[in-house]
């Protein structure tokens, strides 16, 4: 072997360990991230694009209101580095598992994210009938008027926070911060993805505003009171809900009250949800001129991933416009 070849071989052997270190850093494994529900999973997936894919607990058409943990969910939590969930008021099924299975993971409760606007539960009238006889006016103009819902199992605040793109921005910022702190090697990617996501959320906000503007004055009934944030953001006119909480099905008296409310207000549409029994909607529609539609606030019919949040929000706006326009 001549001197030149010897020096080349020695050089390659000397720098090989450093090249392996660099390659290893470039392909460092992303943190193992688990997310509770589809809308939040979509935000996390957007921020993790190019780095990794988060796991999802409540898959398919299941609802966090009625979900039961599976063995695969337990396994995912045991292996998680980070867990994102909305909080105690929504995914009650996760409370105990997170205390045990997810004890080694960083648990991020997104209802604590800085910058969120939180609305208290509504009660009284068409939103909840209580024995104390309290009555409160309802509609977009008084979304804040409900007093503290001490009878409600989900806590003080309405937890469907993601149905306002401004809240989605606040949660996305907390998600990006958490990921960057846990995985500094990919912090630049997380930051760039957050900036791109915020741009898309701004466009989404304008699109929905344009979609629902023609039908803002038309009252409608929803299956459960999940839409307060959407209503508050876009000033659509939710007149009431068939049930306040999907865990508790309404009785005959409540169905009768909603039926009367449809007649009284001239509500043009009653909206079902794909996760719950549609027969109740047919009961309250019977004998009225109102039409039926479907809203999917938890994205049960959509495929999980970065696009889901946008598809879900645009679909809510489009479904409202379609049903309420045809009911005019």
Helices, by number, come to: 10
Q: Domains counted in the coordinates: how many?
A: 2
CATH architecture group name of the largest domain: 3-Layer(aba) Sandwich
From the helix content, strand content and strand pairing, which structural class follows? alpha/beta
**CATH topology assignment of the largest domain:** Rossmann fold
Largest sheet entry = 4 strands, parallel
State the end-to-end CA separation.
90 Å
Fourth CATH level, the homologous superfamily of the largest domain: Nitrogenase molybdenum iron protein domain
* Rg: 24 Å
Helix percent band: 40-55%
Strand content: 5-15%
Please mark out the parts with pLDDT under 50 across 5 or more consecutive residues, or reply none: 14-27, 128-154
Helix and strand string, N-terminal first? Answer: HEHEHEHEHHEHEHEHEH
Dominant shape = globular
Instruction: State the oligomer.
Output: single chain
Task: Tally the beta strands.
Answer: 8
Average pLDDT figure: 82
Major β-sheet strand ordering: 2-1-3-4
- CATH classification, class level of the largest domain: Alpha Beta
